[in-house]
Amino acid sequence: MNQRLQQQLNLVLELDRLKSVLRRTRIQCADDRLENSAEHSWHVAMMALVMQEHANELVDISRVLKMLLMHDMVEIDAGDTFVYDSAASKEQEAKELAAAQRRFGLLPQEQGEELFTLWREFESAQTADAKFAKALDRLIPMMLNFNNQGIGWRENGVTRQQALTVNRRIDDGSHTLWEYAQQMIEQATENGWLKA
């Protein structure tokens, strides 16, 4: 087997470990089970296919899908951080950067560099593609929490203001989806799922 193929296969096998990285969000069909990062990546990529028309700007759906399918692969090394934990989120950036360099470094150089650049684009959220991808990445856990009677928010004492602040970047990628997110936040607050 040639070296290039072996490097690619090694990464593919490593990616299987993403299935064991648990998030704080419960799946909707069984609120006693946490979703894993591989499930999240697939779910948010499917969401991109369905919701593309709601992006604020024209997006290249192929690039958006690539970002969403690989954005959390760094969690194999760095773990998942609860989005409402601001202190842990700051530390997480350095851990994820190191993990990305290591993971993408497993691939043939030009392929690894291309995907690492795309991952950094997603993280910086400055392009239309990255803004839309980030918007969806923030929205899907909100939807699952909302449809599970806010269990993740209630368990962690999340406030209405935290939900608004942390998820405001949805507006950068989709004004339509941000309006929907705000409606969920207000309804969750009225229901007592988010602290007022």
TrEMBL record:
<dbReference type="Pfam" id="PF13023">
    <property type="entry name" value="HD_3"/>
</dbReference>
<dbReference type="GO" id="GO:0046872">
    <property type="term" value="F:metal ion binding"/>
</dbReference>
<dbReference type="InterPro" id="IPR039356">
    <property type="entry name" value="YfbR/HDDC2"/>
</dbReference>
<dbReference type="GO" id="GO:0002953">
    <property type="term" value="F:5'-deoxynucleotidase activity"/>
</dbReference>
<feature type="domain" description="HD">
    <location>
        <begin position="15"/>
        <end position="178"/>
    </location>
</feature>
<keyword id="KW-0378">Hydrolase</keyword>
<protein>
    <submittedName>
        <fullName>HD domain-containing protein</fullName>
    </submittedName>
</protein>
<dbReference type="GO" id="GO:0005737">
    <property type="term" value="C:cytoplasm"/>
</dbReference>
<keyword id="KW-0479">Metal-binding</keyword>
<dbReference type="InterPro" id="IPR006674">
    <property type="entry name" value="HD_domain"/>
</dbReference>
